[in-house]
Design brief:
2,3-Dihydroxybiphenyl 1,2-Dioxygenase, domain 1, 2 domains
Length: 290
């Protein structure tokens, strides 16, 4: 079977108080391209929990989804009871979600939520990669689509999302899995032995500058997340033309300081770290050259 096309779309943050937390994001150059709630006609309903999704975007095609409890499925509620507010999964868009079930399972993934068809919105399922991180697979149906935003860096700081950062126990094996199984290509490789960082991109990178970063912990904050949760989706990665200004604006908007911008030898530029309201890490790096 040929490798399906996996297009990076968004990550999901399970957030206890999204109405409060979203203001920090909105004060930091973000916008709300979509909001789905229990009364939305074209959104799926399970009868178990609720639908409460707020999508946030900032200057790039990669988005964040804030999801509020009570969650729709029991497996989600169990995850939240164990991990609390945190990044829960990364979502990928595919042409045919059903065809990817066997593809992922035959290559070491397990299934957290079986394939379902949710009416006129989307078809999909949730897989678990070989190290335990959740991978949502989604296929749009009919005219349903989470709205895109203008793919242009925002404001004086020229801030834009790039993608998720995933902490790995075995970096080399995970790079191999995401390239061989998910069809990603390596665009930056800063590994030394089993440590370091790798940027991966899907086939749409030339028109949609999104990356998935696979890495081992590079600071105490990342190591703490690994110690508490194991391999984890640790961070949201941004780029900014004015890194110092973007980092200071995040602090002003209510994000917690982790580390001021400093040189990161792995990527050859400066990076700063802050913590968003749910407790996940936000990385802001100097602008990438596509």
């Amino acid at each position: 079977m040929a490798t399906p096309t996996y297009q990076l779309h968004h990550l999901c943050i399970y957030e206890k108080n999204p109405r409060d937390a979203m203001w920090n994001w909105l004060k930091w150059y973000h916008a709300i391209p979509a909001f789905y709630w229990e009364g939305t006609d074209d959104m799926h309903h399970t009868g178990e929990g609720g639908v409460d999704y707020t999508f946030l975007a900032c200057g790039g095609p990669f988005q964040m989804q804030l999801e509020a409890p009570p969650y729709q499925f029991e497996y989600e509620r169990r995850w939240f009871a164990e991990h609390d507010s945190a990044i829960n999964h990364v979502c990928w868009i595919v042409p045919n979600a059903l065809e990817t079930v066997d593809h992922l399972q035959s290559n070491g993934a397990t299934v957290a939520m079986p394939y379902e068809e949710f009416g006129d919105s989307y078809n999909g399922f949730v897989a678990i990669d070989p190290e335990g991180r959740w991978v949502e697979i989604m296929e749009y149906v009919g005219h349903f689509k989470t709205p895109d935003v203008e793919f242009r860096p925002v404001g004086q700081r020229q801030l834009a999302t790039l993608g998720p950062v995933q902490m790995c126990k075995d970096l080399n094996s995970q790079v191999e899995w995401y390239t061989d199984v998910m069809g990603q290509k390596i665009i930056h490789d800063a590994r030394s032995g089993g440590d370091g960082l790798v940027y991966l991109a899907d086939s749409t990178y030339d028109g949609r500058q999104c990356v998935t970063a696979l890495a081992t912990p590079n600071n105490d904050a990342e190591q703490d997340l690994m110690d508490r949760h194991g391999p984890v989706i640790s961070s949201i990665l941004y780029q900014a033309a004015d890194l110092d200004g973007a980092w200071n604006d995040a602090i002003t908007a209510g994000f917690e300081e982790i580390a001021a911008p400093a040189m990161d030898d792995r990527i050859g530029c400066r990076t700063g770290y802050v913590r968003e309201p749910a407790g996940s890490i936000v990385q802001i790096r100097e602008q990438m050259i596509a």
